[in-house]
Design goal:
- This protein is α/β, with parallel strands linked by helices.
- The protein has one domain: 4-Layer Sandwich (Metallo-beta-lactamase, Chain A).
- Helices cover 22% and strands 24% of the residues.
- A seven-stranded mixed beta sheet has the order 1-7-6-5-4-3-2. Strands 8-9-10-11-12-13 form a six-stranded mixed beta sheet.
- The longest helix is centred in the last third of the chain and has 17 residues.
- The chain starts with 7 loop residues before the first strand and ends in a 7-residue tail after the last helix.
Amino acid sequence: MSVHVQPQALNGPLAGGSAGAQVAVEPLIAGHVDFPRAAMVDPGGSFKTLRIARAISSSKQAQTVPVPAFLIHHPSAGPVLVDTGLHPSIASGGSENFGGLANRFGRPSLEAGEDVPSQLRAKGIEPRQVPTVVMTHMHLDHASAISAFPDSTFVVSAAEWQDAAHGSKPSMNGYRRAQFDLAFDYRTVDFDGEAIGSYANFGRTFDLFGDGSVRLAFTPGHSAGHCSVICRLASADFVIGGDAVYFAGQLDGSEPLAPRPFDGHNLRRSVQELRLFHAQFPGAVITPGHDPEFYSRLAPRFE
């Protein structure tokens, strides 16, 4: 069943941009999930699908990985959140938010005060003071806490919204529609539209505030309309890679990509754009989706 809420097309920048704006970025770890490495890094060999299915159903093969979100400080547009982390209710059990099957196999966990709303309040920011939330994609571990931001404008690619909200077999494709079938302000970006331009090695990008400070780069493959987010800092760009790669080794080519993406061809193209960008701008940070080692050594703030 499709969702009831209807998004609006975002055909131009949101208000709040300012010429030459630079931003700061704070990574936030908002919970953890258990997922087998075989489902995140292609194990190769024969009977791969069967091996992945067995790994998913076996708690012995699960790896606990972080669920990140990102707080962007824009000088005139206010705080911008990228993804939402796990919902506060996960701290007392995840079956309602994640659904029974995903909760059983994903085993989401959240410590008290680890959810994004609590972390924002600790920084003096109430959730209602976050005007904009950008979704890299709508998979349930990224969209889990959407309901905690009823006053925000949510920005997501049109292709992602279409598949998440209206595609067949949503739960099999990583979506839980109850998380986002809410009467909120959703805005969709059509990456075939007139407001789309290129940036460095990225072929299709959208300038969120019209000032070059925050750009959405279309990096589909992991999901139908996955986006990465390019943030202009004073020092270098900071690229929120979403789940285009799960681990840093998949970005540098030392590890295989995920075995069963939504679209393998587009995933390889998107990862190549990220790799070329990193080669051209080695000082830029590019975040993988769920790499425990990467996030354990990541600085708390970039500016």
